Amino acid sequence: MDSEEFLDIVDPEDRVIGSAPRHEVHARGLCHRASHVLLYNARWEILLQRRSLRKEFDPGRWDSSASGHVVAGEDYLTAAVREVLEELGVSIPPDRLRWIGKLSPTGKTAHEFVAIFLGPIDHPLHPSRREILQTGYFSLSWIDQWTRQRPEDFAPAFLAVWEACRDGMIENLAR
């Protein structure tokens, strides 16, 4: 997204208290919002993306299937659907994404409240070359082992997302 997008600034209860340009929000460490989407295939493998080397934050690191800021005036689900389309070239109906939970802002999440969504993917991908270096489907056990052995391969926010939801992932996939 454009570096001058406006983001809602939120208080510790995730209530909007203003908005500011993205660069200012990050420079001042203001709390804001992001959505992360974990998509899975018919074999229950999770789609991960490796971030473009041109990305401002965490270039070349593995991340959620799709993720990004919730822009000013947008809700978490709308942002999740938009990011899947922008990053993966897939239009996914909002009712296909299941709300998993929300992380509170920390340094690991770049001061973001992070909403986590889980959904099936059965469409061909058309990844944005500007956003994504590569994609891959990985088993839950492989991701778990990989994140524990080589956390430096992953964006810090993804590690927080994975840690928060990995224990309930199989249960959520089975529903």
From TrEMBL:
Name used for this protein in its record: Putative Isopentenyl-diphosphate Delta-isomerase
- List, alphabetically, the PANTHER family matched: ISOPENTENYL-DIPHOSPHATE DELTA-ISOMERASE
EC id: 5.3.3.2
Q: Is the keyword Oxidoreductase assigned to this protein?
A: no
Keyword annotations from UniProtKB, A to Z = Hydrolase, Isomerase
Q: Which organism is it from?
A: Candidatus Methylacidithermus pantelleriae
Could you tell me which Pfam families the record lists for this protein? NUDIX
Upper lineage is: Bacteria, Pseudomonadati, Verrucomicrobiota, Methylacidiphilae, Methylacidiphilales
Any one Gene Ontology molecular-function term assigned to this protein's record: isopentenyl-diphosphate delta-isomerase activity
Alphabetized InterPro entries for the sequence: NUDIX_hydrolase-like_dom_sf, NUDIX_hydrolase_CS, NUDIX_hydrolase_dom
Annotated Nudix hydrolase domain residues? 30-160
